[in-house]
Amino acid sequence: MSYVFPLAQSAVPVVGSKDLFPVRRVYCVGRNYAEHAKEMGFTGREPPFFFCKPADAVVAVPANAVGKIAFPPKTENYQYEMELVVAIGKPGRNIPVGQANEHIFGYALGLDMTRRDLQLALREIGRPWELGKAFDQSAPMGPIHPVAETGIMSQGAIWLKVNEQMKQQGKLTELIWTIPEVISNLSEYFSLEPGDLIFSGTPAGVGRVNKGDVLVGGVDGLGELAIELV
Ligand code: MN
Predict the structure, then answer these.
(1) From ligand 1's centre to the CA of 57, what distance in Å?
(2) Could you tell me if 55 and 20 are in contact, meaning their C-beta atoms sit under 8 angstroms apart?
(3) Mean pLDDT rounded to a whole number for the chain
(4) Distance (Å, rounded) from C-alpha 207 to C-alpha 223?
(5) In whole angstroms, what is the distance from residue 53 CA to residue 129 CA?
(6) 19 C-alpha to center of ligand 1: Å?
(7) Res 38: pLDDT
């Protein structure tokens, strides 16, 4: 049996390996840093929630390269959200918090790119967020660092610069829901499978970018992710 046409498998390089990590699903956590929740008009005490992007929204940007990302249509307010991405390597449902780290394949740097004007307009009228969050090339990310190399990540700085100006600065210790809590909670709603990615939320300082801007972000231990908007 073959297919009526070929379809590319979305995939991300793995540091130290020739093999790629195939992307199955992309989950994102909303409002997982208190200061960001506040800048979005909330108190910072609400439980985080999840939304999804399609697997092919991922753009794998090699280490030490500048990924070219097309400025998207239908927005006057295109924004960055620098995030730690968790790659799942072991299936599970109803995963206890204490066992959640065993399901981590590795970590990567990611940008949850957002058409903020569309997202907020949809939020306002209670409609789904796809047009604001789940569009083409909305998930640029760096290579995956295997957990065997990084160890479990629970602290360290997360930051983003736009045109060399610091815009976002946070710490992983400021996550409202820790990575194990996110994995555990998400697995109550969905069967997690190898190939799933979780964008874990962004610290405060999100903002608008324009064509020609260069975004460089990092998390301690994972190097840097760089993209240019073209
Ligand atoms: Mn986000």
Answers:
(1) 14
(2) no
(3) 96
(4) 22
(5) 10
(6) 28
(7) 85
CA neighbor of 105 nearest in space, from 145, 140, 143: 145
Instruction: Calculate how far, in angstroms, residue 159's C-alpha sits from the geometric centre of ligand 1.
Output: 14
pTM for the whole structure: 0.97
Sign of the C-alpha dihedral computed for residues 31, 36, 39 and 45 taken in this order? positive
CA of 179 to the centre of ligand 1 (A): 14
Q: Which two tokens stand for residue 65?
A: 């390269």
The alpha carbon of 158 and the centre of ligand 1 are apart by a number of angstroms equal to: 13
**What are 51's strand-pairing partners?**
28
Domain definitions of the chain by residue range? 11-229
Distance CA 31, CA 53 (A): 16
Query: For the segment 112-150, what is each residue's pLDDT rounded down to a tens digit?
Result: 999 999 999 999 999 999 999 999 999 999 999 999 999
CB neighbour class for 64 (10 Å; exposed up to 12, middle 13-18, buried from 19): exposed
Fold of the 11-229 domain: Fumarylacetoacetate hydrolase; domain 2 (3.90.850)
Extended strands (E) in the chain: 11-13, 20-22, 26-30, 49-53, 58-60, 66-69, 78-80, 82-88, 104-111, 114-115, 139-141, 145-146, 157-162, 165-171, 197-199, 207-208, 214-219, 224-229
Distance 68 CA to ligand 1 centre (A): 20
Cβ < 5 A residues, ion ligand 1:
81, 112, 202
Rounded distance, CA 172 to CA 203, Å?
A: 9
Q: How remote is the CA of residue 30 from the centroid of ligand 1, in Å?
A: 6
